[in-house]
Amino acid sequence: MKISYSWLQQFLKIDLKAEKVGELLTDLGLEVEGIEKVESVKGSLEGIIVGEVLTCEKHPNADRLKITTVNLGNGEPLQIVCGAPNVAAGQKVPVATVGTTLYDKEGNGFKIKKGNIRGEASHGMICAEDELGLGESHEGILVFDKKTKVGILAAELFEISTDYVFEIGLTPNRSDAMSHYGVARDLKAGLLQQKINKELITPSVSSFHVDVRSLKIQVEVANKKQVPRYAGVTISGIKVEDSPKWMQDKLKAIGVNPINNIVDITNYVLHELGQPLHAFDAAKINNNKIIVKNLPKDTEFVSLDGETRKLHKDDIMICDGDSNPLCIGGVYGGLDSGVTEKTTAIFLESAYFDPVSIRKTAKRFGLNTDASFRFERGIDPNITDYALKRAALLIEEIAGGKISSDLIDIYPKKIENHQVRFSFSKAEKLIGEKLKPDTIKNILASLDIKINNQTDSGLGLTIPAYRTDVTREADIIEEILRVYGYNNIKTSPKLNTSISYAPKPDANKLQNLVSNQLASQGFYEMMANSLTNPDYIEYSEQVNAKHNVVMLNPLSSDLSVMRQTLLYSGLEAVAYNINRKNSDIKLFEFGNTYHKFDGNYEEQKHFSLLISGNRNDNNWLLKTKKSDFFFGMGVVQSILERVGINSYKSRPIENDFFSEGVSLQVGKHTIVEFGVVKANIAKKFGIKQEVLYADFNWDAMLGFIKNKTIKVSDLTKFPSVKRDFSLLLDKQVSFDEIYKLAFQTDRQLLKSVDLFDVYEGDKLPEGKKSYAVSFMLQDDKQTLTDKQIDAVMDKLQQTFETKLKAELRA
Predict the structure, then answer these.
(1) Where would a tag sit more exposed on the chain, N or C end, judged by fewer CB atoms within 10 A?
(2) Cα(661)–Cα(804) distance, rounded to whole angstroms?
(3) Across the chain, which distance is largest between two alpha carbons, in Å?
(4) pLDDT digits (tens, 9 = 90+) for 568-582
């Protein structure tokens, strides 16, 4: 939120430096994230002096240039070369002296220097109005009235305003500070703690009166629960044109673009007092009647941006006497009911809408306007008529209108102030320091909190309705503390500490351990959005639509469900990098997946790896080598070893994300699935190169580490033996078939079967692939002989050749 310092000074007559005010606001809980100097004219015409052209002669070396001598009233006249067609002797003109900085339309500055133009010296620049930022014309230099005094600063001739704008990071609970008046009210309380007592000046509306009762518009509120208060008045005889410069400067300073005097006044009052207003063209209100009601579901409404929107049955609509929708109440105006240059009379609305209803409507339509921003957080219900009168008087003053009806104010049930009981002992306990009762009472009074009664133990308080965030005793104590100053609370020299329970294994410590290891191997950590595209469920049977966790109010159709796997968001990152010429990828991510099982929601922690392209850059020491299945498997195994998981078994993978892969299991639990992502899935993301993917079930891993028991046993006296086969197979053959056939062939000596490399390339026959498979053999009773080992391996070879038509590769 942007707050103008000069605007604040209309409420509080202070002359503190902007930096000091920023510090005070931050101490009060209105954190100032930045202070920007804003000028109505860039550079504030600094260095621009009124000069008189004494002579003007044609340049001897250029037809379109002239040589002038200019008197600046402070010494010898300056020679300036000028290319303007209208420059002439006797003129009073703006001169940018040497060292002055001028700015172009984009705000880029350039400094005026001594120059030599076509052989003639030039000591400054005679300026056109666009070069000074005073207009758009560049037809010739700006010429002042002949009576203008030579030597004065040009800034004295124009209304140049300089302001400082505070960028406040407003928290959602501080709806009371969503205006300059609200911030000034808080600042007054803070200044009192600094022993600076300033009166809070509010705009007077005492002169409000009906000029002529010539345009009466009836108002009917059908849903008083959603619209507790609704006020309006008509103003006739207005002339729609540009707002005055002072108002435009104020709005521009806080980032609001001026439109016309009527709309600008409503915006001005909104940012001044925090009360949104809306002006309707009275000629477009049928039957001279306003009806505030709900319309049937899917009723079409064309909003101010030209978009046709289908309404919800709970949307608050401002309609005319024929029930035609004119405006989405508190959110957005209609295309056909707003103020135009032809408007001569308006109906001005000021209302208090139910915050929950406004928030739901704004979310449904994806709209975030200045009005909805305030209504959905809760505005002050007691300034509805005051803000309306303030705006009406400004319209009278600026647009020449006349108030042409009585002020209508429908407010059947007043929104009451809150009653809270405050305890001195509870305040001391929470603050950690005992504050004097008089100090507490002064702070409460400065915050408009009334003291109804006082006892030795505490106070009975009335909280103004605009403080929607102050409803409990703890809130009162927080208010006292922020105004008193957190920095003023003394710290105790005594240090208290407690021993916290540290779960084992420590998930964060373990995650950092794995992250550091991967970073040392050249991996980069990524963090993807947990929201994903619902269309991704079509890419695999592993992800089912019935298990989707669907967002009720999605930001867009592409981000409407929670992800069930880390793969797709990872492939988005891979594609993003490849499209930007970074095709050698090593990424990892810790993240959650979200599922709906039998009506219950479940959240699972996973850890994923994505590898594609080359594993290293080409250099004089190392040749480029492609990241293959063997490399990825090595990374997976190193992670498991690092966290202490050594006793796992390889199983054939059943996940249809992968064309080839393995599943690593501990007991019946799968802890990792690793393999080559199917080419048709990668292609959906525009990826043509091979992608290796590993999905670690982090929750299962932590559970295994937590429950892991260390068993001590004698080392076997008899060594194990490892043999490898490089098998040439048909592409449709899976590792599952090899795994099962191996154990069917031998169940006594064969202990494990692992796939450690997969190769598919143009060096193999068409329709073929190569598997590198390892077999571990061991006998617990004796040392294996070559004869026994060869016998088992021969049997395996024969089985693979017979049943899988495999060939051994050299």
Answers:
(1) C
(2) 18
(3) 119
(4) 999 999 999 999 999
Q: How far, CA to CA in Å, does 84 sit from each of 14, 128, 138?
A: 45, 8, 9
Q: For residue 319, which amino acid is it? A: C
**Which two structure tokens, joined as six digits, stand for 712?**
């001590």
Please answer whether residues 469 and 186 qualify as being in contact, where contact means their C-beta atoms are separated by less than 8 angstroms: no
Torsion of CA 504, 510, 511, 516, to 10 degrees: 160
Do you find a cis peptide bond into 203, omega within 30 degrees of 0? Answer: no
Cβ count near 43 (within 10 Å)? 19
End-to-end CA distance of the chain: 72
Q: Give the model's pLDDT for residue 399.
A: 94
Which runs of consecutive H residues, i.e. helices, occur in 455-563?
473-484, 507-520
**C-alpha separations of 806 from 96, 325, 640 in Å:** 88, 76, 32
Record the tokens describing residue 41, joined without a space.
């004219």
Tell me the CA distances in angstroms from 353 to 228, 304, 411, one per residue in order: 6, 20, 12
Tell me, rounded to whole angstroms, the distance of Cα 179 from its chain centroid.
21
Which residues, in sequence order, are CB contacts of 161 under 8 Å at separation 6+? 6, 39, 40, 246, 249
What is the DSSP secondary-structure string of 320-361? ETT--EEEETTTEEBTTTS--TT--EEEEEEEE--HHHHHHH
Q: Which pLDDT score is estimated for 709?
A: 63
Separation CA 557–CA 424 (nearest Å): 53
Q: How far apart are CA 403 and CA 217, in angstroms?
A: 12
| Alpha-carbon gap, residue 481 to 677, rounded angstroms | 58
Name the stretches of the chain with pLDDT < 70: 620, 707-713, 810
User: How far apart are alpha carbons 450 and 181 in whole angstroms?
Assistant: 20
pLDDT of 708 reads 65
- C-alpha span between 203 and 181 (Å, rounded): 10
What DSSP character marks residue 288? G
| DSSP 8-state code for residue 156 | G
| Angle of helix 180-193 versus helix 261-273 axis, rounded to 10 | 30
pLDDT in tens, 329-361: 999 999 889 999 999 999 999 999 999 999 999
The CA distance from 86 to 142, in Å, is 9
CA gyration radius for the chain? 39
Query: Helix crossing, 424-431 with 437-446: angle to 10°?
Result: 90
- pLDDT value at position 357? 94
List CB contacts of 715: < 8 A, sequence separation 6 or more.
none
Name the amino acid, one letter, at 778.
Q
Number of C-beta neighbours around residue 620 at 10 A: 5
Backbone angles phi and psi of 191, in degrees to 5: -65, -35
The number of helices, as runs of H, and strands, as runs of E, in the chain is 19, 40
Cα 191 versus chain centre, distance: 33
Q: Which residue has the tokens 């979310």?
A: 363
Cα–Cα distance, 681 to 685 (Å, whole number)? 7
Q: Report the predicted TM-score, pTM, of the whole model to 2 decimal places.
A: 0.65
Q: Which two tokens stand for residue 780?
A: 């617990």
Structure tokens at 597: 């099982």
Question: Between helices 507-520 and 629-642, what is the axis angle to 10°?
Answer: 140
- Which tokens sit at 94? 């703006």
pLDDT at 645: 86
Residues linked to residue 80 through DSSP beta bridges, in sequence order: 68
Q: Are 535 and 563 in contact (CB under 8 A)?
A: no
Q: Which two tokens stand for residue 510?
A: 């373990």
Contact 672, 693 (CB under 8 A): no
Determine the distance from the C-alpha atom of residue 487 to the mean position of all C-alpha atoms in its chain, rounded to a whole number: 30
C-beta of residue 384 within 8 angstroms of C-beta of residue 352: yes
Q: What is the structure's pLDDT at 336?
A: 87
